[in-house]
Amino acid sequence: MSPKRRPRKLLVRAVCLAMVAAVALPVLIVLPWRWLEPPETAFMMRARASGLEIQQEWVPWEEIAPHLSIAVVAAEDQKFPEHHGFDTQSIRSALEKDGSRGRGASTISQQVVKNLYLWPGRSWTRKGVEAYLTAFVEALWPKMRILEVYLNVAEFGPGIYGAEAAAQEFFGKSASRLSVREAALLAAVLPSPKRMSAAEPSPYMEERVEWILRQMQQLGGPSYLGSPR
Q1: HEC per residue, the chain
Q2: pLDDT band at 14 (very low <50, low <70, confident <90, very high)
């Protein structure tokens, strides 16, 4: 082999290996959770490291009240059944309002990725990794699996993760027995679970709950999400 051609061949091989790794690694860390219960999330590990006691109990889709699923979608991501991981209209609106950052534009799919793998913050590095992994989650998981995981890992209060722990903590019942209003209360805290409480809703939260209830009705209730599988 010509000495001049060898570096070029090595470069091509390195680029090919990098491209394979860029696909294989995300698949390896995303695909198993299509069927398996994810281990402790990155956000839970961060909270535990700070000394916070963690409450979380995984429950399958069938053991979560349908009201909570539609309440979360109504509150956080009304285009969830339609989009492929990104709500481009919301992103565009957020950029226009905020100048440079996508505040308030994250879909449920993006929030699942953030909770499972990433860290708080709005840096472009984190946003880039989040977007990349979100594409794999959307490609490899059914929509309702994404929502099932979200309902089990979302933070509903300081150290309280998932629908079951939240239902037990705030209402003394299982997630399967949540009423429509209780579901709306839990959905209402999601933007800021450390500042807002489902147990002691502020006037602002009460207004938000009423708005969520109206949105749930306008979307058509749990039937808006279609078949759970």
Answers
A1: CCCCHHHHHHHHHHHHHHHHHHHHHHHHHHHHHHCCCCCCCHHHHHHHHCCCCCEECCCCHHHCCHHHHHHHHHHHCCCCCCCCCCCHHHHHHHHHHHCCCCCCCCCHHHHHHHHHHCCCCCCHHHHHHHHHHHHHHHHHCCHHHHHHHHHHHCEEECCEECHHHHHHHHHCCCHHHCCHHHHHHHHHHCCCCCCCCCCCCCHHHHHHHHHHHHHHHHHCHHHHHCCCC
A2: confident
